[in-house]
Every structure is written in C-alpha cells, then in structure tokens.
Specification:
The chain is an alpha+beta fold. Helices cover 51% and strands 20% of the residues. Bound molecules: adenosine-5'-diphosphate.
C-alpha cells in the first residue's frame, strides 16, 4: 500500500478514536471536520490510484484496496455523525449507519436513493445542491420531528474538481446538536428566571430607598416600616443567590456526599426545633413520628438540608392550626415522609413541581419568601444519594413528600 494512503488511514483511525473519546462537543466538531477531510482525501487518492469511481471503491479485489475500504467502512460506521455522499444526479453513493438511522431506517440501504426520496427538508436539499455547484455550506440547521425531536448542524462540502462544471458529488455531515441546543435553552431560561427573580426585590429596595430619601425619613414610624421592607427584600435576594450557588454546585458535580449511618429521630428533632418559632407563629404543629431506633444511611448535613426545605414548605403552605408530620417507612428503600394537611397541590402541577423556579402560586410563594429553588435542590440531593423524592397531594387534604434512600448496605449485611 502506498505510503500516503497508509498515513491517511492512520490519521483516520486516530481522529475517529479521538472523536469518540473526547468529551468536548466543540473539539469533537473540529475532529469530525478533520476526519471528513482526511477520509475524502483518502477516497480521492485511492480512486486516482486505481482509476475507478468512488462509489465502486468497496468492490475492489486488490488486497490493499480491500484493507483501505474495510478500514474506511469501520471508521465511518463508528462515527456518531451522519454522513451522506451524493453524486451529480443527487443519488446517494455512500452513507454510514448514523445517516441511515437519521433518514429512513425502514429501507435496507440508502444507496442509489434520490435525496428527494429520503427527505422533503428544503434546507438539506439546497445545501447539497450548493455542494454540487462547488459551494461549501456549513451551519445549516436541520430539525427532524420523528418520535423525538432532533436538531442537526449540517455541513456540506463539494467532492472532486469544480472546474467550471460543478463538483462530481457532495458530502454532507450531520452533527447531532440536540443535547447542546437543549442545554443552551435551559441556560437561557435559567438566566432569564434569575434576572427576573432578582429584579423584583431590587425594584422594591430602590423604590423604598427613594421614598426615604424624599422625606419619609422624617417620620420615624414610616421609616421603620420601609426599612423592614428593604431588609425583607434584601434577604430574599440573599436567599436566592445562596440557593442558586447551592444548586449550581450540586448540578455541577461539586458536592461530595459523605454517607454514614444517621439517627433519623434525633435529626428530625433538631430540624423541628429550628422551626419551633416559625411553626408557633403560624399555629402549625410539628410532629416527629419517627421511631427512635431508626438509622438511615445518608450524608447527615445534606439530609438535614432536604428535611429543612420540606418542613419549611409544609409550614409555609399549611393552613392555620395545621400539622406537619415526619414519619419513616422501611422497605426495599428507606422512606422519609413529610406530610402536611394544608390546601394540597392541583394534580396538573405535580409533574413539574421539582423544576427550578416552578411555583403553583407565584405571587403567594414570593410573598412568603420563597425562591422557587427549594424542591429542585431536594430533588438533586436525593438523586446524589442514589435515591429520589416523590410527591402525592390531594386538594383540600394535604401533601406528602417522600425521600427515598437506598437502605444501608451494612444493615442488610
Ligand atoms: P418555594 O421557595 O416557592 O417554596 P419550592 O421549590 O420549595 O419553592 O416549592 C415550589 C412550589 O411548590 C411552591 O412555590 C409551592 O407552590 C409548591 N409547594 C411546595 N411544597 C408545598 C406544600 N407542602 N404544599 C403545597 N404546595 C407546595
């Protein structure tokens, strides 16, 4: 096999391996681009050396060409990106399994199919048409609306000489950017939520400071009232920033759990004690129904944080003279239940309740000092423990949040 081909094959294999192992999407994009260029160069060199058309490459009988085409095949089959090569008549002359999955898994092979038979998407068609005219296209956004929506970034390059008569073919690569796009949407939504949440208390603070400056300070009673509103709004911003930092740390994998045996009854007692004043102010009773001998396996500080959030919500959304009860159930997993007899949550909200900033009654939550992040933090902490948190609720009767934790491996040993 000529030295040039060996080098290119080596480069193909190396780039494929790198593209498969490198986690960064951007680096993978660059590697995939290089891989395509190398593969195309290999096809062209090989075609020139055996003086045959590229779509018949795989039928060669010469041992070195067989080796080339099987390596190429393995390389293309291993790519996550869909790859499609069309000839001048817009018929497919080569494709890889990822492209097959993307276009039409019901036909045995894409080979010889017209591009118009595979897709009615005008963006794809016009990108390949440009490729045949010798024009390189990149950044073409392609969406599919099958059982699940997928988004691709299509890049098309011409193949062969373009000496005034257009190219001999066009090669397109479909980069799957569904996940990247979803993450980008989440990030934007998060940023807009955070800005909105911060702006409300900040506007109130500025307004009351201005009122004080324009004379209200002379009246001790009003100035005291305005200062306390300013303090309330400032602590709301403080709480929000704390929760955002906490959630970011948990989601970013920067929180390490130290799971150990925890005496649940004692922990619940401590959390209830910290809420005694708040519960009394709202005439809510806190009941610790956990048997004294129960041991669960968890990171104590993080379990305390989860219980604090749930009991706080129980008190906040409870009714006058209501009760928030904490109990324990054993089973394949340890269950810690926080149950209130408040107004309950309408069924249509339950599915989204653990999303960041999701609230059933936005105005009420803000009024009572909620950030809308508490349940998202509980969910992530439960997941970090290898467990989960679930909710059941009945309108007019109350709500039960359950933390499910893996049972202590030492206990069953
Ligand atoms: P918040 O800071 O608003 O309490 P959470 O994430 O803790 O944020 O809760 C999200 C929303 O879920 C609340 O705004 C409220 O509408 C609802 N919720 C949470 N716990 C309860 C509960 N025990 N009873 C009724 N509604 C609740």
């Amino acid at each position: 096999m000529p030295k040039r081909q060996s080098l290119l094959i080596g480069a193909c294999v190396l780039l494929t391996v790198l593209a498969l192992v490198v986690p960064s999407f951007l680096v993978r994009l660059v590697l995939a681009g290089l891989l395509i260029i190398t593969a195309v160069a290999l096809v062209l060199i090989n075609r020139n050396s055996v003086n045959r058309s590229p779509d018949r490459l795989d039928q060669s009988s010469a041992p070195e060409n067989l080796a080339v085409s099987s390596l190429l095949e393995a390389t293309l089959a291993g790519m996550r990106e869909g790859l499609l090569v069309v000839n001048k008549d817009m018929r497919v002359v080569a494709s890889n399994p990822a492209a097959h999955k993307l276009f039409n898994p019901s036909v045995a092979s894409l080979k010889s199919q017209r591009l118009t038979e595979l897709t009615r998407n005008p963006a794809i068609y016009s990108a390949f048409l440009d490729g045949l005219k010798g024009i390189e296209r990149s950044g073409v956004k392609v969406e599919t609306h099958g059982p699940e929506r997928q988004v691709f970034d299509l890049r098309v390059v011409p193949i062969g000489s373009t000496n005034g008569h257009g190219a001999q073919g066009a090669l397109g690569v479909f980069f799957d950017i569904t996940r990247t796009e979803r993450l980008e949407n989440i990030r934007q939504e998060f940023l807009s939520n955070v800005s909105h949440e911060l702006r409300t208390p900040l506007t109130a603070i500025i307004a009351f400071v201005e009122t004080l400056e324009t004379g209200a300070m002379e009246d001790p009673e009003s100035s005291q009232r305005f200062l306390s509103i300013i303090r309330k709004n400032a602590s709301r911003m403080h709480g929000l920033i704390d929760d955002i930092l906490e959630l970011t740390a948990i989601e970013g994998g920067n929180v390490r759990l130290r799971a150990a045996p925890v005496e649940l009854y004692t922990l619940v007692e401590e959390v209830c004690a910290s809420f005694a004043a708040k519960a009394a102010a709202q005439n809510v009773m806190l009941e610790n129904n956990v048997p004294s001998e129960v041991i669960v396996y968890a990171d104590e500080r993080r379990l305390e944080q989860m219980l604090t959030n749930l009991i706080d919500n129980g008190i906040k959304f409870s009714r006058e003279h209501g009760t928030v009860a904490i109990s324990y159930e054993s089973g394949t997993r340890d269950k810690i239940l926080v149950q209130d007899n408040g107004d309950g949550i309408p069924a249509q909200h339950l599915e989204r309740l653990f999303e960041r900033f999701y609230r059933v009654d936005r105005a009420r939550s803000r009024d009572i000092g909620g950030t809308g992040l508490g349940l998202a933090i509980v969910k992530h902490l439960a997941l970090l423990h290898g467990g989960e948190v679930t909710v059941t609720s009945e309108l007019g009767k109350g709500t039960t949040f359950t933390i499910h934790l893996p049972t202590n491996p030492r206990k069953s040993a």
